[in-house]
## 1
Amino acid sequence: MQSKEKTITCSEEVRVRFNETDPLGIVWHGHYIVYFEDGREAFGRQHGLSYLDIQKAGYVTPIVKSTCEHFLPLKYGETFRIDTTYINSVSAKLIFRYEIFNKQNKLVCSGETTQVFLDSEGNLSLYNPEFFQQWKDKMEL
């Protein structure tokens, strides 16, 4: 169940690297998931919810679901913007929505990931961990 109250977004500019392209100079489809991770990491740094913050609290957040839809190609040397939006949920999980735009501000790709909380022993957290609930309260979610 998702809450429609408030979302938080982060934008990050990235440049396509040579090793991310196929022989035609077009970004290989699998790298878009890596771009999503770039977006999540930028979000975490900007909003105080980095992987290191989560790890320090004694948790890891593996991805249990990901989707990715492609609309336009990116090519070697291009810069693009990835908008990463946290989708608030009452469940103990992290949901992020991604939109990748080229320099012409055209939608290149969109997708979503869902992550769950596992404690240091690998147990699934059914309730928001205390540190995460504190973060949500601070962000007024």
## 2
Amino acid sequence: MYFKKIESFISKLGYSVFYQNEREGIFLIESEQDGIKNLIIGVAPPILIMEQYIFTLKSDNAEVMKSLLKKNRDIIHGAFALDEEGRKVIFRYTLQIENLDINEFAGALNSLGLLLSEYYEQIIEFSKK
């Protein structure tokens, strides 16, 4: 039920789906104009999880970590996080799925697109450290 709902949102918003697996509740989408590439959407009731890989840390750089945490304060929705190994920086956003509507879903995607467009120069610099 929720998988089809999210599938219709993705379609209506014009995102490209590169992979989907209803049994696992996973979509892999992108939008070139928004800078979103290989965004993983996980349908895991009662929540929807969005994760976008940003870059891999080359070292445990305190300056980079501190800057990412400061930026989290500016992000309206979602946040930077690290994967289980503490090497990959991802953008993670979770939503309650039961009453999710297309406007809220679109807002989450727009938040990520805006973050990437505003912060891309710093992200590139961080990926080199």
## 3
Amino acid sequence: MRRLLILDYALSSLWRRRYKNFSIIAVFTLTVAVLGSILLLTHSLKMEASEILAGAPDLVVQRMSAGRHDLIPVRYIEEIEKIPGVGAVKSRCWGYYYDALTGSNFTLLGLDETATHEIHLLEGSMPKAEGQCAVGPGVARIRNVKVGDELILIDSTNTGVVFEVVGTFTEESSILTNDLVVFPKDDLVWFFGLPEGRATDITVEVFNESEVSTVAGKIKRMYPDTRPITRREIVQTYDAVFNWRSGMMLTVFLSALIAFSILAWDKATGISAEERREVGILKAIGWDTSDVLELKFWEGTVISLTSFLLGLIFAFVHVFFFGAPLLTPVLKGWSVIFPDFHFTPYIDLYQIAVIGFLTVVPYVASTVIPSWKTAVTDPEEVMRS
């Protein structure tokens, strides 16, 4: 009952200084919202990338020439297949295409018929015959094409080639297929003018996941001009990229964080004359020092928790309902065809706890400490000052 009465008085005290407290809550909420948006967005991107890459090949083998990615001979497949523990080994043909008409970049991929089941379509079918293609939603939007329309691209001989659009992609994440155009493999080889017996890279299936690194080492010794890349390394690369970009956004946010620190420091260095008189009056009418500290604790807790919860709600809505429009331009990269971000909610309780520890705890402490200095002072001296 005693604590409830103190909490009730704390709420009425906060309401008397409501304009000042509302301004503090607004700054506090903005700080938590920005910090929470960055961390929620980064964690969601990491989780989404992990789910997408879960279906990636166990091992991708690239050929290096003068330190750069080069076409790999298809004959390497015969020797790689002989390595114990290796399953299907396939060559892949893919590349990038600059579309001068829209100033954007497409990713072109050639698929065998055996691989067409790996991608689901929203409408139409996968390309099987010569002169057919399937396009991602970004390509369909920017080139204004749909199933049954024609897509004109310029091949390696600077000649316009007409392809029939027979399908458009749909995926849970448009990050995967937004700028993608898929052709039959032979069409893509011809379109890029790839030399016979060469491919972009080779994918390797490894039956035992713990042996992926061992197989990669054997391939590297067998063909020193290759660079085997494991799925784990690809995931780590994505994590590093997202961590770097989130760190860059946090650096931009540093000014707001400094402003919040100044606010907390101002609270820690002293309380207003009105608040000192209030504490002196409470001590004079019989309140103990512990009662005054509990009162200030509840005042700081109400403000900080209210701001913390509002900030998290705004961050959640900003990221998962509106697609983080204020932050995604930093994460989209160089492509002109930006995917529509619809993030799947992933909540990391550890990150939430860290945000709370870095914001709520310092503010409550900065509220209680100066009040303690006043509470232990003689009430008559406090009211005279």
